[in-house]
Amino acid sequence: MRTAFAALALVMVAAPATAPAQEAGTYRQLQALDARVQSIGWRLVRANAPFCTRTLPAIGLLLQDSHSWTDPAAMRGALGLASDIAVGAVADGSPAQDAGLAANQPVLAIAGKPFPDSPPGDYRRLAALHDRIDDALQAGGSVTLSIGSAEGPRTVAITGQPACASRFELLTDGQSARADGARVLVTRSLVEDVPEDDLLAAAIAHELAHNLLRHPQKRTEEGKGWNKIRHNEREADRLSVWLLANAGFDTAGAVRFQREWMRGRDWGFLTPTHDAWDERIAMIEQERALIAAASAHGDAPGAYDWSDRFPMSREDARP
After folding, report:
1. Residue 93's CATH number
2. Residue 89: predicted pLDDT
3. DSSP 314
């Protein structure tokens, strides 16, 4: 896969999971979790696009490929899919939703091209198809999809909207979330454990901040070390508040996420890369105060410009 990713054009990392006999309810539950992650991510990358150093056109569409599963026929049968490739999830408020796309609609072609063959259990075709969407959006600002329907195929042209460059993926294994520089990887366990969107958005915004500030790349370029990583974590905590505010989420959710979810997972001196949960709250509250001051001067969600504040010096980022 390449690093030139458009937001929400995703690879379903859950794909290689062995699930040949899963019932339809399980597949649909994963789709619902995916849709929730995509919708939160879409709000964050769209609202903060004016302040990101790198943006790409995006449409808020997640595809699904039955061949990404070990038993494609079982997956198609469980969801009643008429083709290998179908709509997986559509972000709320996205161009894909405005175009009338919905989960499980057959996708027959992208940018006028059919799909290559793929063996069962291989996610690479799905990655290539999302890359094809990216390429079309970057080349001409829009992408065409051939969608199957009872009346026959119909072609839909969807124009992308500027978004901060990051993808979002749902993982079936693990307990939390992480960022790899191009993607925010959110585990099923975290999404299920945090039912309130304002709190889940806080976790996703923190990881998105890592991508926007190129923290994973910097670890490769500059080397690793506890002090460097802790500085990165402080920056991500602070920037996440601005990302949330611009997207219209309640920034108090970031405080509650630390108190209600991170507190019980704070291992103290055993996690030298992170400050204690109460110290992280102190940093979050400092940023919330700055946003409140900006709001008092007339700024509103979508207009909180954080581009001059980040990246931060190590001294400024300290709690």
Report:
1. 2.30.42.10
2. 96
3. H
